[in-house]
Amino acid sequence: MRAPDVQWRPPRRGRLASARVFGVLAIGLVFTVAPGDLAPAAWSGPDPGTGRALNGVSCAAAGFCEAVGYLGDRALSEPWSGTAWSVVRNPGRGQSSALRAVSCVSARSCEAVGGYGNSSGLSGPLAESWDGRAWSVVPSPSLAPNESALNAVSCTSATSCTAVGYSGDRALVESWGGRAWSVVAVPALVPNRSALNAVSCRSGRSCVAVGNYGSGTLVESWDGRAWSVDLSPTPGTYGGLSAVSCSSARSCTAVGSYSHGTGSGSSGLGQPLVESWDGAAWSVVPVPRPAVGYLYGVSCSSPRSCQAVGDYAGSRGLDQPLVESWDGTAWSVGSA
Fold first, then answer.
1. Which of 40, 88, 245, 259 is the most buried (most CB within 10 A)?
2. pTM for the full predicted model
3. Mean pLDDT of the chain
């Protein structure tokens, strides 16, 4: 399994061992942290060289998608024309930068987020905007002078986007109004060891973000006026949520993992976690559980249809794809 990196994420053995679902495409994730190491650390970008990975994708039409990630030590995007993918090196910031997520509302409007770092150890959030011709870096504020990054973004229009991540040891939420990003106040948590890993917005007045708070799950919701913390259960002694998908204001599904570890190496032996929002409360939903497994992405087309993806430890100790499906009644393990 990988050494701790950035913010809480269930551990995985390979750099591209898992996938995150956006619509119908699955793209590899990169940034992970063991559940026992819950406080965000300094952002670490990819090593210089020719390494290449894609972390997120968004499709605005059948003939247009944007995937983002990194190439060597620079931010990367790959547009899909309907027939082929092409490579675009993005402007980026600092000496090392990477994009983690992207949301497109049209072929002329995309917002991508991630993080950057430099040789002095400073790091910060990275935001880039696509206008149909080129990517440009857009200033993105943070709460701390270093150790900040944006992990996810969700846009409902060209002038309404929400991005989430962390700044120092606090959850970070930023809002895009069409011209600039601004920090949005979130509830103060004591202690402040929190991070947000994913966000799903149905409209400018309805968003749900998930992540971790201390050693447990964290869910926050936006009602158009303010963010508030929703109570969310945490099985075991360690847990966190990696992804969320809302098919309506009364139906959201979040996935992640939990364990019964003690904060040492045993805390890495996690099990898949699925939680559901019914409009009134979050609850844990039973799922088929391999001995060791994690869920990293989820996409719901309706309250009765969801797909969640991740990985599990195979018989030879190698990561194997994990796919679970929801039919409105129960989760079942599929094949990948």
1. 40
2. 0.85
3. 83
